[in-house]
Amino acid sequence: MAVLAVLQPxxxxxxxxxxxxxxxxxxxxxxxxxxxxxxxxxxxxxxxTLVSFDDAPAVAALVSRLDASxxxxxxxxxxxxxxxxxxxxxxxxxLPSMKRIDGAVVPVATSLPYEPGYVGxxxxxxxxxxLGALKVDVAVALVRGHGFLHxxxxxxxxxxGLVAGVPTCGVADSLLRVDGVDEAAIVSRARASLQLxxxxxxxxxxxxxxxxxxxxxxxPNFRPTYVSAGPGVSLAxxxxxxxxCRRYRVPEPVRLAELEGRVAxxxxxxx
Length: 271
Fold this sequence. Notes:
Helices cover 43% and strands 20% of the residues. By secondary structure, the protein is α+β, with helices and mostly antiparallel strands. Strands 3-2-1-4-5-8-7-6 form an 8-stranded mixed sheet, with helices on both faces.
């Protein structure tokens, strides 16, 4: 009995210690994710200060050629994934014909997880590499994802453009939560007021114009394409580029990038 009396407190301490260890093991992934997101958010805030959302000279020159219906080259880039692999794809097209003139597919090898709002850390280096692999010079690229339309004004389109050193803008199918923007209300307003090729501003509770909702299809119950500014590309120019590349809902060079990415994954062109 005396021995049991001595061992009982020790047993309780061991059980308590094991419980603490178990809790720590269970919480570790959540703590790691919390710390990673916090660190990435700070880095996005810093990088956003490096971005100018005005038209770069080369972009302004391209817009002038576009307005004059002169041939010009734009690119589209996208990250395409299946369950096991991913590729970054860049496609260059000529406007106004929308003829494909070049393309590049780059395998993605990263251990970083997918985190909504922080996709650039995972995707931007490979999107930039795909842009750099094009054999033609491009003055601007449309990126699958958001640019300025982001909680910290630094979505994947900004991240990719900054890494690549190429002016970029964002095009996306859905909105991130930012500044009280109500996507359902925007969709309703767009369907009620927009004609084909028109866009309406996306204004937050603060009064900031975060981006634009573009009508790119004729269907009455269409979903808008969300366009946003990026490094060296103003919102007005981003909308003009998206309209100029309009063939389906997704701007043509981005659509082609996604199609070719799916083909590359299916046919195991890259591993």
